[in-house]
Sequence to fold (127 residues):
Amino acid sequence: MKKFFLILIAFFSVSAFSQDPFDRKQREQTEYPKEGLTLPPVSTCVYSEPRLAEERPLAQLHIVGVVQYGKQAEVLFNDDGHILSAQVGQRIGKEGYLIEKVSKNSVMLQGYKVGQCEQTTSIIMRF
Fold:
């Protein structure tokens, strides 16, 4: 009975370790689709909010997960092996998308239409 119990514990601990989203080796082995999102061209509007990953298009940033504590929520993006933490109200990517809302399985982004800084478009990224 003890051997069965030890084998059962070993099985669950190995399966729990293999599901770790913060394991560096798993992030390096993960292959992301080359196509990703089809996003409109970069706008030339001026932003007052802080901006992360200005040199990368949003299609190259991949959502790793969401961290929620209290009423605050942060989105974790993977940028070639680096983890970026972004909050609601910050802009991300070359396109300058504004993070509007973060839930446990989606992120709502808002961006300006090309050449029209008064009109915005919304994008919902699900994971």
